[in-house]
Amino acid sequence: MSAAKNQTAVLILGMHRSGTSAVTRTLNLLGVELGDNLLDPQPDNRNGFWEHHDAVQIHERLLAELGRNWHDLRELPEGWLDHPAALRAVDEIAALIRKDFADTRLWAVKDPRMCRLAPLWLLALKSLDVRAVALIVVRDPREVAESLHVRDGWSHRRAWLMWLQHVFESIRVTEHVPRAMLTYDDLMTDWESNLVRIGTELDLVFPTSVEAVGRGIGSFLNPVDRHHKANAAPVSQDSTNQPPVLLLRLMDLCSQVTVDKSKWHAITALLDDYGAHAALFSGPIAELTNERNTFEQASLERTTTIEQVRNEIAAHSAALQSKMAALDGLNNELENLRRDHQEALNRYDELLSQHSDLQLQHRELTAMLQGQLERARFVTRSRRWLFIRFLQMTFRKSAVEDREWR
Length: 406
Description:
Layout: E1 8-14, H1 20-29, H2 53-65, H3 84-101, E2 106-110, H4 114-127, E3 131-138, H5 141-152, H6 156-173, E4 179-183, H7 184-201, H8 210-220, H9 245-256, H10 263-405
Parallel strand pairs: 1-2, 1-3, 3-4
């Protein structure tokens, strides 16, 4: 299934913590589709990221296969677009578009990783005959650096370099597609006229009018949610935390290009000059980053090993505790058996004593009965003798009387 004809896809490009989430949601309120499978809000962005989950996963897999990550300061590998992983990512992006946006006239996708990976989307959109436009969102590098410092503990210099990298690549990759610039300040101070301007510059017809959703957008773009503001007060009192002039100049040109399109040439010239100088350092930076990544990987492996050992120790400790508990149970049973054994011994001694008493009584009774038996025998013999004597005397008397009678 191919994409619908006369489709337009808005690629929202911008550095992390630059307000791209707010811009994307604002466009969504104007009827620009984002798809249904969006990332869930998180504590660091409670109003939502408004990023397509599958798109982020495609980007993450590709960066990993290229040996990079979302905060890597190195250039992408030379010829990365011809890498099998990149070709596979283009096919995955095309499949995502066919699945979620096939019948959608106007839709947008946003992920800060796209500043570096937008060429993949341009290839996929071209293959599906979908018109591509780019909206580049920039925020004062001091505010971005402070936000990343608070959230991730990054140094300001690292955040500035990453800001410059993202802005540089988003501008470079969109040279040949319709594009517009939007600063975070302009979004927060005058979103309505800037959205009208962006619609005109990119030839977009929003499905929902600004008037219809103005109250909702105004409520969503709450100034309370803006935690860092460079022009309200110094972002940091430490002078070492002030960005290089190059970044401030680029930020100024990005602000000017919203009202003067000729400033695109000045931006391109500035970035070309930066690119020429950056090439001197990209090699050493890549080497240092590789060394750091090697150390980090070794540290991660050691940490993983330590964690595994800790888990094993915890498992052994739990097993030991279980066995100790079982041993305590056996000890209690043994103690009970000892107590029962002692009671049995005591009972045995008691019964033995009773047995001895009974034996003594038995002997006494036996002796007594023996004496009585002897007396009974004597009496019996005496009575038998007397009876015999009585019979003899009676017989004699009877004989005498008989003789006398005769």
